[in-house]
């Protein structure tokens, strides 16, 4: 809605901040709805949430388009648009972890993040032109039409990715490894394998003493039992079309509802929230700035010209996709070789180096040139905006990959924490952004923002160094188990 800010402000005779809050309320809807995503996705899977989100998006977009004479109605329509968006923001990255192996996730995670965040910068380019030609209501009507057109694709081409595995296979073999360690039920020739598995989960090696014949016999019986486990029959395509196909867990719904909140105290989850959420908040802030400085003096852009400014941001998202796809898996392979063939999830954090470079240059540069846009012109501003988006995409990919690789068993809860954080943070920014700019000026505000972002990126250094110890600690002292969640 950045390109439509002044148009809608004049239409409803509302302040600039009130119209900016239409984006803020939308983000708030995403964040609040995300809280309900965890238990429902855990218990019944993801497919029904994608279907519900798509249907609700069609309804809410039509509602928003029909709210031309009622600002309050438009606010509520925007909130429900956020609710409709929440399943996609919360679960798409988790689906990448469901569908692909570790070495296959880099490019797919980059693509999913660009689809989620990067494509959002293409819509203002179209929205400005649509508003100028047809009226702002048609930006919502057309979105409703395209959402309705995508509904059959969701119904027929998006199967359930959640699968209820045998309990002993969960948590990256942690339970079976710990059980065999406790019972000393590991064959001598197999000990190295399980030492490697245990060290990957807990971050430390456990050396086992040789076993007696009776213990070895018990291991053989256990192995035969699990190998003879009945393989489930293949699901037919018609069965795959069901919104639900059984419970995925027997855990209590209320406990699952509360699971994300303690994870904000988990260092890895908090780091991921900061790396992904804060930079996304700054892009929302930049959207407010663009509307403020280009729709007024000295350039007096109209909706179409302001919308075209987001072309740079969209190009930046594509460049971020390409760089993330090329670097994530290739850097991983290089680090594995340097680490003598052992993979560590912390290798994913190295992508943040590029976030620091691109977002730092983009934010500092944007603040300097946007202060005097009459002298520097719109193109320089757009280039720095593109650099910010490149950094945003690379940071989002780095944090998502690290969570999926290092904490797969709590991936849904982790992505929900990230969703709640970034949307509530962005919502708060829309409240104060315009007043902050008026009271402090663009340059001082962005110098402060840039310095904060650099400090957040630097937090990746202790995360990289102590990440393995952090995994070891929380493998031994599971925060959710301690709280009986």
UniProtKB/TrEMBL annotation:
GO terms for cellular component: plasma membrane. It is found in: Membrane. The chain crosses the membrane at residues 16-37, 49-67, 79-102, 114-132, 138-158, 268-295, 307-328, 349-370, 376-403, 415-434, 446-466. It holds the Pfam family MFS_1. It comes from the Eukaryota. Residues 1-485 form the Major facilitator superfamily (MFS) profile domain. InterPro entries: MFS, MFS_dom, MFS_trans_sf. It is a multi-pass membrane protein. Its main location: membrane. GO terms for molecular function: transmembrane transporter activity. The keyword Membrane applies. Keywords: Membrane, Transmembrane, Transmembrane helix. This is Major facilitator superfamily domain-containing protein.
